[in-house]
Amino acid sequence: MRRNYKLFAAGFLFPAVALYTGFLIIPILASLYTSFTEWHAGITPVINGLTNYIRIFHDPYYWKVLFNTFKLIGLSLLIQVPSGIILAYLIFKASRGAAFFRTAYFVPVIIAPVAIGTMFVLFYNGDVGPLNKFLEMIGLESLTRSWLSAKGIVLYSVIFPQVWQYIGFFTVITLAALKTIPLEIFESAEIDGAKPFRVFFNLAIPLIWGVIIIDIILCITGSFKSFDHPWIMTKGGPGVESAYITIYMYKMAFTMNNFGVANAITVTIMTLSIGATIFIKKIFSSKEEA
After folding, report:
1. Nearest Cα to 59, choosing from 258, 270, 272?
2. At residue 283, does pLDDT exceed 90?
3. Mind giving me the DSSP string for 213-275?
4. Does 288 score more than 60 pLDDT?
5. Among 97, 170, 193, 253, which is least packed, fewest CB within 10 Å?
6. For residue 81, which phi and psi values (nearest 5 degrees)?
């Protein structure tokens, strides 16, 4: 009977395990193997050791796009996660209109990044875009820019739509965590005379700390695999000024036809994502336990 139970359970687990293995484990192992090969389309991969890794680590463009990706991560952590927590708490405490605001904040998340990118291309247009027109209308012509071509500005022009679009994602996750807290806890704090500011920082934040850690991890790993917004808006240009590491990987594979180097970049992305996840869990685990 015990054996039959194990077979019955295995039958239900097999489809999930097969899909997970076929679409995740095998591709990861294949990418890892081909990252140590000289591989161009139509040519059998040939082992070349660490040549691909040496090449990318000596490539200034690699470090440039990696630095761009770290800028995206930094701004996302500074804006997306705190904004999501604050908005979630405001909705949680709202006596009226909570459903409307929850929906309104989440709507951008379900819109395709392609549509968001296209919308902001029009928004940033130097000739007919509303941003420059608005600046001219209020007498700030000196602030008008070629937002999608000027060095030093284009990266932040590309980062802004992505940061804005996914604030609602973290808002909904954090709101769901807040709703698991019994209302009696907040009511007791208010009866004891705790101010809203203290209730937020000394009560709400500690009680959902585990979810905040998940928000941070999702924010970092999501930034490492970002591709859509800069590709739609600028193709990573001019040069690699607005490119993330994923765009550099894509161009290496499908423009320069060097799949070995592209897979080496893929392995570094995966390593950085896993390393960041472990680091965040280790750094914040003690606070979570407290």
Report:
1. 258
2. no
3. HHHHHHHHHHHHT--HHHHHHTTT-STTTT--HHHHHHHHHHTS--HHHHHHHHHHHHHHHHH
4. no
5. 193
6. -65, -50
Positive or negative, the CA dihedral 192, 194, 200, 201 is negative
* CA angle at 132 for the pair 128 and 136, rounded to the nearest 5°: 110
CA-atom Rg of the chain in angstroms: 23
Q: DSSP per residue over 73-135, as a string?
A: HHHHHHHHHHHHHHHHHHHHH-SSSHHHHHHHHHHHHHS-HHHHHHHHHHHH-TTT-HHHHHH
Q: What is the dihedral of CA 109, 175, 86, 82, to 10 degrees?
A: -60
Q: Is pLDDT at 286 greater than 70 in this prediction?
A: no
Which of 17-21, 82-86, 96-100, 149-153 ranks highest by mean pLDDT?
82-86
Longest dimension (CA), the chain: 81
Q: 28: helix, coil or strand?
A: helix
Domains and CATH numbers, the chain: 62-252+270-289 (1.10.3720.10)
- Residue located via tokens 């761009």: 68
